[in-house]
Amino acid sequence: MSLAKRIIPCLDVDNGRVVKGVKFVDIRDAGDPVEIARRYDREGADEITFLDITATHDNRDTIVHVVEQVASEVFIPLTVGGGIRTLDDIRRMLNAGADKVGINSAAVFRPEFVQEAAERFGSQCIVVAIDAKKVSLPGEVSRWEIFTHGGRKGTGIDAIGWAEKMVAYGAGEILLTSMDRDGTREGFDLALTRAISDAVAVPVIASGGVGCLDHLADGVLDGKADAVLAASIFHFAEYTIQQAKEHLRMRGIEVRL
Amino acid sequence: MSSVAVIDYGMGNLHSIAKALQHADPSVDVQISSTAAAILQADRVVFPGVGAMRDCMLALNGSGLAEVIRQVANTKPLLGICLGMQALLTDSAENGHTDGLGVFSGHVVRFAEGLTDTDGVRLKIPHMGWNQVRQQPHALWQGIAQDSRFYFVHSYYAQPDDGAIVAATCDYPNAFACALAQDNVFAVQFHPEKSQTVGLQLLKNFLHWDV
């Protein structure tokens, strides 16, 4: 008997539609978020993450409605990230039925925001999303820095130190995305995932780069991730969540089936 | 029509639990209630909770709802969930030391740092995700397979003084009490409202529980 490793499908939502880009460009339409969330729930997803990539503030209501609809019929944990900047944004998402929110850029601009959010709503619902890119050269000791604005802006902040700081500020979980791998289908950055997972006491979700089921298993076994997140391999029905779980079990990983 | 009140004391989101109760049995009248009168009028009561113990007890004591919950615990079916379970014990080690409602005799303690699984891998805190629940016989487990997985997220857990009130245990890595039952009170550390079909079944069983 032990805790299952989680498989988390991620829905990138833009103006109410699920989309998935390769390195944040070349966006393909993948469908209606409510319908897709329903399917993932039926297939046995352990949680569902919505990433609101809508650029304009006016369209923020759309994601709230999506979460409300999903939360009325899907009874597994739901996380919403993207554009979470104020305590009021968090309250709105939780009231809509989200269980956790992902905070990314707002934490970089003002780290105390994470502290305030954890104090107000509890660490259990504060996920700090970290977008990291390798900055060391081949042959050097590996070093990753955090990036904001969908991977476009460097910050000069060391990713491992940042993860430790965010946990000290009250993050209950870390969602770690490798900007080098996101959308490439080459697999997670396992060294990065392992480094962050070893550094912090809270669960780490590996994200960015999944192209096949072995990549998910590698994230757990080699990356020491507590959960693995993927988008496109599930959206375009290459694999079902059920198949992914059976594969993980075959590789000796405890899953909920 | 039978009714269930979900206690609203200003801590966290009640949408999920209310929706899940409604989904578990559409014929039941589900109300989110913050007043003593509404809570005492309902046929059964759900006491949810997320966040920190001290804030929870401050809110309950400040609003007078602490006394209402003690009264409910003596009179009708009561389901405590997560922090709502922990608050039913004598006290908690969270926030230094916080007195609870004392419905169950016992303490709430934190998972020790540096625990590892059988492969020597460090276990993360909070204990977050789907873990297996080993049931003891109780009406609320009806229709739920032994060792089913429920969704947990917590860093503290209950240590009741009397082992006879333990209705289920879970391993992380050592066995801990994840459900307590005493007369008309049932309490769970996991989130039935986030545990898909098995969670909905537990809620349905609660809504039909004849104590």
UniProtKB/TrEMBL annotation, chain A:
Keywords: Amino-acid biosynthesis, Cytoplasm, Histidine biosynthesis, Lyase. The keyword Heme does not apply. One of its GO terms (biological process) is L-histidine biosynthetic process. Pathway: Amino-acid biosynthesis; L-histidine biosynthesis; L-histidine from 5-phospho-alpha-D-ribose 1-diphosphate: step 5/9. The active site is at residues 12, 131. It holds the Pfam family His_biosynth. GO terms for molecular function: imidazoleglycerol-phosphate synthase activity; lyase activity. It is found in: Cytoplasm. It catalyses: 5-[(5-phospho-1-deoxy-D-ribulos-1-ylimino)methylamino]-1-(5-phospho-beta-D-ribosyl)imidazole-4-carboxamide + L-glutamine = D-erythro-1-(imidazol-4-yl)glycerol 3-phosphate + 5-amino-1-(5-phospho-beta-D-ribosyl)imidazole-4-carboxamide + L-glutamate + H(+). InterPro entries: Aldolase_TIM, His_biosynth, HisF, IGPS_HisA/HisF, RibuloseP-bd_barrel. GO terms for cellular component: cytoplasm. Its EC number is 4.3.2.10. HAMAP family: HisF. IGPS catalyzes the conversion of PRFAR and glutamine to IGP, AICAR and glutamate. The HisF subunit catalyzes the cyclization activity that produces IGP and AICAR from PRFAR using the ammonia provided by the HisH subunit. PANTHER family: IMIDAZOLE GLYCEROL PHOSPHATE SYNTHASE HISHF, IMIDAZOLE GLYCEROL PHOSPHATE SYNTHASE SUBUNIT HISF/H IGP SYNTHASE SUBUNIT HISF/H. Heterodimer of HisH and HisF. Belongs to the HisA/HisF family. This is Imidazole glycerol phosphate synthase subunit HisF.
UniProtKB/TrEMBL annotation, chain B:
CDD domains: GATase1_IGP_Synthase (cd01748). Keywords: Amino-acid biosynthesis, Cytoplasm, Glutamine amidotransferase, Histidine biosynthesis, Hydrolase, Lyase. IGPS catalyzes the conversion of PRFAR and glutamine to IGP, AICAR and glutamate. The HisH subunit catalyzes the hydrolysis of glutamine to glutamate and ammonia as part of the synthesis of IGP and AICAR. The resulting ammonia molecule is channeled to the active site of HisF. This is Imidazole glycerol phosphate synthase subunit HisH. It comes from the Bacteria. It is found in: Cytoplasm. Heterodimer of HisH and HisF. Pfam families: GATase. The gene is hisH. GO terms for biological process: L-histidine biosynthetic process. NCBIfam families: IMP_synth_hisH. GO terms for molecular function: glutaminase activity; imidazoleglycerol-phosphate synthase activity; lyase activity. Transmembrane segments: none annotated. Pathway: Amino-acid biosynthesis; L-histidine biosynthesis; L-histidine from 5-phospho-alpha-D-ribose 1-diphosphate: step 5/9. It comes from Methylovulum psychrotolerans. InterPro entries: Class_I_gatase-like, GATASE, Imidazole-glycPsynth_HisH. PROSITE patterns: GATASE_TYPE_1. Its main location: cytoplasm. Signal peptide: none annotated. It catalyses: L-glutamine + H2O = L-glutamate + NH4(+); 5-[(5-phospho-1-deoxy-D-ribulos-1-ylimino)methylamino]-1-(5-phospho-beta-D-ribosyl)imidazole-4-carboxamide + L-glutamine = D-erythro-1-(imidazol-4-yl)glycerol 3-phosphate + 5-amino-1-(5-phospho-beta-D-ribosyl)imidazole-4-carboxamide + L-glutamate + H(+). The active site is at 82 (nucleophile), 191, 193. Its EC number is 4.3.2.10, 3.5.1.2.
